């Protein structure tokens, strides 16, 4: 089995359960701004988008102002960001094994502080490439390549773990192997390029058991 020196992670829907706290407020925004009733399945694709790209895609007028309202709704949402079961044990175990870990996400830095730092998961991350760090975003490979550059790793030395086809496309474009995290229970679509399909965080650990 291939030996990886590093693991890069998406955050939303992969490390942290933020789907409800992000998407139900977005449904509220769509109702307020467009007068349309959308379901969770209709907005789930926006989990992979930077916030302003979501506003643009939806054709929102006054996107900066509306985006700030969305952020407020997210942070007021009663059900905040929580690590998926087994995620922290996975991160701690890999760190103890000397596997280098980093985050690559479309989340902005302020929200990273609330969600990742607030849950104490940042201590496992050597670096984090976030919305502000690159001009281009997933599925473009630029964020992954920036992270590899910071870590001093080649694409074939690291694995990217994410929960969307957009994550898979970014990994493929960066020349990285992709592990499709399915433990959030939300069907995001196919990712035929995935080297691995993982249904629990423990299955990622199994890839490193021989180290």
Strand content: 5-15%
Taking all Cα atoms into account, the compactness measure Rg is 17 Å
Distance from N terminus to C terminus (CA atoms, Å) equals 10 Å
Helix content: 40-55%
Protein structure class? alpha/beta
Q: Largest sheet, if any?
A: 6 strands, parallel
Please list the strands of the largest sheet in the order they lie side by side. Answer: 5-4-1-6-7-8
Low-confidence runs of at least 5 consecutive residues: none
Give a quick set of tags describing it.
8 strands; 9 helices; single chain; globular; alpha/beta; 211 residues; six-stranded parallel β-sheet; 41% helix; two-stranded antiparallel sheet
Summarize the structure.
This protein has nine helices and eight strands. The chain is α/β, with parallel strands linked by helices and 211 residues long.
Draw up the topology in text:
Blueprint: E1 6-9, E2 16-17, H1 19-34, H2 40-43, H3 51-58, H4 63-76, E3 82-83, H5 87-96, E4 100-104, H6 109-117, E5 128-129, H7 142-151, E6 158-162, H8 165-174, E7 177-181, E8 196-198, H9 201-206
Parallel strand pairs: 1-4, 1-6, 4-5, 6-7, 7-8
Antiparallel strand pairs: 2-3
Helix pairs in contact: 1-4, 3-4
Describe the structure.
It is a single chain. The protein is an alpha/beta fold and 211 residues long. Helices cover 41% and strands 13% of the residues. The protein is built from nine helices and eight strands. The strands form two sheets. Strands 5-4-1-6-7-8 form a six-stranded parallel β-sheet, sandwiched between helices. Helix 6 links the parallel strand 4 and strand 5. Helix 1 packs across helix 4 and helix 3 crosses helix 4. The model has no long low-confidence stretch (mean pLDDT 94).
